[in-house]
Amino acid sequence: xxxxxxxxxxHRPRLPIRNPADCPGAQAHRRAVAQLATGxxxxxxxxxxxxxxxxxxxxxxxxxxxxxxxxxxLATTTNGPRGVLCIGLLAGVLGAxxxxxxxxxxxxxxxxxSALLAxxxxxxxxxxxxxxxxxxxxxxxxxxxxxxxALLKPVPERVGPFRVxxxxxxxxxxxxxxxxxxxxxxxPYGIRLIVGDVRGxxxxxxxxxxxxxxxxxEAAYDEPDLLAVVGRIERSLARNLGHDDFxxxxxxxxxxxxxxxVVNCGHAPPLLVRGSGTVVAVESxxxxxxxxxxxxxGGAPSLQVLPFDDGDQLLLYTDGVTEARNHDREFYPLAxxxxxxxxxxxxxxxxxxxxxxxxxxxxxxxxDAALLLLQKPAEPAFPAxxxxxxxxxxxxPAASLSAVEGGAWHSDRAExxxxxxxxxxxxxxxxxxxxxxxxxxxxxx
Length: 445
Prior knowledge:
Blueprint: H1 2-8, H2 24-37, H3 42-58, H4 70-78, H5 81-102, H6 106-151, E1 158-159, E2 162-169, E3 180-187, E4 190-198, H7 203-222, H8 226-240, E5 247-256, E6 258-265, E7 271-273, E8 279-281, H9 294-297, E9 304-308, E10 313-317, H10 319-322, H11 334-341, H12 346-361, E11 369-375, E12 410-411, E13 422-426, E14 436-442
Antiparallel strand pairs: 1-2, 2-11, 3-4, 4-5, 5-6, 6-9, 7-8, 7-10, 10-11, 12-14, 13-14
Helix pairs in contact: 3-4, 3-5, 4-5, 4-6, 5-6, 7-8, 11-12
């Protein structure tokens, strides 16, 4: 019945979309490839086969059977205990047959087979221990991923009027999280965001990053002034950090259209991309110390106000990006890379920029690196078009509508051909011969 109603209403039935890669043949092929890649005993079997062929080709005068122990030894690195035992059994059977064919003495053949058995048993034990460590590592990875999602919450692609993209890479690949931090939250005072870098690495840096993010998320909702948000983070760090610990950060806000507020606390200057493609570093006119050191330095952060129009973009990053070096010890040119990979899609821009960064350093970063790109997309322009008049509208004067002011629409007649049927209630006297201020309540047809 529901499908029939959908067809009568002009809607196509929702059919399940099947990926061609999900067919049974493709799944079997993927399983075979995965098994081969994760340790199917192909290489050990090939090694044993090559040794057996060499022994057969060399004739009865040579004895290659001791080299068969290479089979189970190689299987230890890729296979489980069962696979190692199977490879050892295969090597032992071939060793016995080749030894008998070559006329090896009984004691010498027994010694070779005993060594082969010892290598196989030791390899099976090592394989079992390796599998246990891999399971523990997988559990640690899952915990790290959960901690990352709790600490560095995923940022949606659209937040208010902005398009956002984030790329984060921890220096410790197995840990997944580090001392770099970022957050973007919509608040009653507009969109607010922070990108920072904690001094040091390891669990202590992660703990400090969690502290900063927690205070920022609370203060961003409570404080109407962006400097007050920074002040609350500073006071919290002063109570909880040591004398030599600090956090560099950039806190930004978008309180109203066209106005961007930036507070830089000892961090690398953000890059502002104008709609024309010009990349400008937002240098602070009055540099402030990092968070946690204001008591020692006596300085206070200042608020920068910048115009931020449609088509503009703002890139915030950590020093793990700008201090990344290549083999020639050259720093990564972030501004140049941003110009080269700039596009209208922030996600595509950061993907290309991150790939370029990894190419620059040779494939692996040696410090935590975070990139956050904020874009104010240009609003599409809709040219005014005359709506066709109905027979009931013939002879009526043309109506004009303006923007909503104070919750009331202004119209010079009770209905408009481009709007749904509406009921208008006058809220004031007539302001002209054909103009009347009215409240409008839209009603479904």
